[in-house]
Write a structure and sequence with these properties.
By secondary structure, the protein is of the alpha+beta class. The chain is built from 4 helices and 8 strands; from the N terminus they run βαβαβββααβββ. Helix content is 26%, strand content 27%. The protein has a 6-stranded antiparallel beta sheet, sandwiched between helices.
Length: 172
Amino acid sequence: MEHDLDYRDQVFINFRDFFGLSPDHAYRWVDLKQFCLPSTIWSDAQLLGALIRHDQFRDDYAGGGVDPTGMRHGPYWLDRITVNAYEPLDEATALNILHVWVSQYGELPQTLELTLERDVHALVRAATSRYRLKVLGEDSLHDWGGVHGEFHELALIDRDTHSLALIVAADD
């Protein structure tokens, strides 16, 4: 399938890698997928639509990985996610969502804090637009969509670097 966004790379931050043998990682992780914007100017809504149509968006985030013919995205049926399922937010709100989620069980190891700052928070700050996937409700959950204790998704558009980042922060 040809795509309007060019998939660039993925960064996976598994909290377990930073906590050693301690269970304090609480099975949390951040998955970051980065895309290059098309060479022509598109509206934010067009870019979010292109993201939703991309094969890399067909990820259940529960260990199965990307399924190009899949029908799931995170806890939701893919067909329930539209451009209107995303709401715009400012930098402070986006950072607060992440801060509340990462700090809910106490302090983080400094190396994890530095990694999150470099790989995630810096992208939130640099973005020219930020969007959050709304909670879509139980009727949008797929057959085993409740496996995540929490599921937070941000789409960050950075027109200065011609990139779009999809950030999923969740636990299982």
